[in-house]
């Protein structure tokens, strides 16, 4: 009897140890964010992971039959991650009854094609509008109140000022996260969660319902005032400029603290959206703590003020409010379709906000965007929208008259992803260490100087050396210093020369240049380039006068070859 008791005690102890061990393994091994130098990286299965992603159309994921026509193409196009919507109305069609069979089918499809998943929770808002909520929510406006605009009319946007709205959305979202934990915590198919989609009030600068009006004339929440006061000297200039107009007041209602302009309405809405979503994110993370991000419909050139774009979303003006009001949200990400991509990623990648681009272009401009975001801003990843519709990926390089190839794997973005996939281990090793950079060039921004390692890289849009008027309309490249005088370079339609920046001989020559590829992280050399491959100019005397050799790197077209460059110096 005593022997059996001891055996049972030992068995119970073993069970507890195994349970604790498994629980710890799940918690430690799930995807999470981690700092490396100045970069923030996504860690998956214990290693940094670069999202070469794409987002399917909004309702594509509502049909498993339709998605079965999409998965194989995603493999062909070199995606490693797919962004997929899950709508509140799809998983809770009747109040209190949850059905996650669609989620399971989407996970099965992704796993069978070796793809990772980022789920987009279309709950209270999608593109600012409450169109993906369940029918039983839409039909009961008394229980689930909406935003009111100046006319006194309600619009199809759930109000952030309603605890009921948040509680019911949170209940569904928490059930969803619990289910993800149950079916995926030991597989790590799901990498991150986008909470809602492009939130904000459309048609007015703020909610003017009775609860919103009452909150607007109350004192600005102490948590926000304390945050702004603590970070006063390092605040982003957009919000600091607004706050400065009132003498940096720390007491009073919203207009007393920030002034009587539409910007104050936008800050007010940002706080309320941030608080609503922070509570959702915290509750979801209590079930399964995956990284959570928002995405923003950024201000468009034709917009005259908040309400033309969703008022209250994370924008350059409101990023600090979101940081203060939603600490459980890890990234505030921009959706960028505008041509000045480089300017917008710089606006969002500030004050500790990591960069991820969940929606953007998938054409040749998208290929440039991906290279630049990853190389220059240590982006966690890049994702064009509508990848199930290959017509979106068929755009040509600007100025080209040749039809794009029919084979989707040869389109600009898939070719770019093919190269970035090879370079991923080197990119991830160098992010945040000051040894990686990128260039994003157009006909308006034709050149860029980059200080990297012991040299200044002079990067230009490719042009014909015999006919300089013949030039590419867009060029991009990624540059990695892998040694004191050695670089890995890849891109499209660029020329690169080098200028030493440390003491010693001031002309940089090309000791060797070879193309190649990476296989399983190992460099496989290809052609050895010299002569016409690297000659950029014949006037060598004039080149020497400006400390140039006359040679350099040139990468033409969508080949995206990787070149390994070793330099030497002379005078």
Structure description:
The strands form 5 sheets. This protein has an 8-stranded parallel beta sheet with strand order 12-11-10-9-6-5-4-13. The chain has a 6-stranded antiparallel beta sheet with strand order 14-17-18-23-20-21, with helices on one face. The protein has 17 helices and 23 strands. The chain folds into 2 domains: 51-329, Glycosidases (TIM Barrel); 430-570, putative beta-Galactosidase from caulobacter crescentus (Chondroitinase Ac, Chain A, domain 3), CATH 2.60.220. α7 (163-184) runs parallel beside α12 (262-287) and α9 packs across α13. 33% of the residues lie in helices and 25% in strands. With 571 residues, the chain is α/β, with parallel strands linked by helices. It has helices at 2-29, 64-67, 71-76, 88-91, 101-112, 135-138, 163-184, 210-216, 222-230, 237-244, 254-258, 262-287, 319-325, 341-348, 364-377, 412-430, 540-545, and strands spanning 32-36, 39-44, 47-49, 51-55, 81-87, 116-126, 146-148, 154-158, 190-197, 292-297, 331-336, 359-360, 381-382, 436-442, 447-452, 455-461, 474-483, 486-492, 494-500, 507-519, 522-528, 553-555, 562-570. Mean pLDDT is 92; it is low at 5-26 and 395-405. It is globular, with a radius of gyration of 26 Å.
Strand content: 25-35%
Whole-number average pLDDT? Answer: 92
The CATH architecture designation of the largest domain is Alpha-Beta Barrel
CATH class placement of the largest domain: Alpha Beta
Question: Number of DSSP strands?
Answer: 23
User: Helix/strand/pairing class, anyone?
Assistant: alpha/beta
CATH fold category name of the largest domain: TIM Barrel
Per DSSP, the total helix count is 17
Domain count? 2
Shape: globular
Distance between the termini: 91 Å
Tell me about the biggest sheet? 8 strands, parallel
Q: Strand arrangement, largest sheet?
A: 12-11-10-9-6-5-4-13
Low-pLDDT parts are: 5-26, 395-405
